Amino acid sequence: MLRRLMIPVIASTFILGGCQNGQYTQSALVIGQGVLQATTLSESQVVEASAAAAAEMDKKSKIAPASSTYAKRLANMTKGQTSINGVSLNYKVYISDQINAFAMADGTVRVYSGLMDVMPDDQVLAVMQHEIGHVALRHSYNQMRERLLTDTAFQAVGSVGGTVGELTQSQLGQLAYAAVNARFSQSDENEADAYAVRSLKGLGRDPYAMKRAIQTLQTKAGGGDGGFLSSHPSNADRLANIQKTIDRL
Questions:
Q1: Do 52 and 70 belong to one domain?
Q2: Which end of the chain, N or C, is surrounded by fewer C-beta atoms within 10 Å?
Q3: Does the annotation mark 131 as catalytic?
Q4: Both 126 and 231 in a single domain?
């Protein structure tokens, strides 16, 4: 259940919602001249926007049941890793041929069964640590915040003066799509890779799994549309930076 939000500014409004029977209801993020007022957008509201988008993504996806092999593999891989920097992590597997994984600022971590089909657990865990790195390093937060601040798709559906409109499922879907397909800077990617390497080491796992995961994805996925490498491009320099991080451990 998402709690209500209300941000007092003089501007038009659009909704981020509390949930009743699966429907998102009145709560507001406020936009002026098509751009959300940066001074009014709190961190908790960005996180809550991520949670609402993740809930919409979950509704539209086929989630592996706890009894499935995929869910059991995931539970085994993530045992003991329940939070990062005070953010609670929640994991699910989407049943889909897509070779992908993503994480969001609220601690949502999702892995596609297609990814789990093409690599062993150590490499899947490496990809997940990379995604969790984007959360820990606030890359995911910054992406969502920028989206809310600048995207005119989220302009007012209400009127000036505090009238509250409703953020539609379509708009939530747009937020989710942007998060799943976020294109990070090369610096962000290198930082998330380094985070993954260090995290694997700290978990007592093989840090080389991060390098092998990228190599597997290059072979199996080829960086095609909708996959991990399409939103997390790879190149020789990236692999070299991963190796440098391993060498410094």
A1: no
A2: N
A3: yes
A4: yes
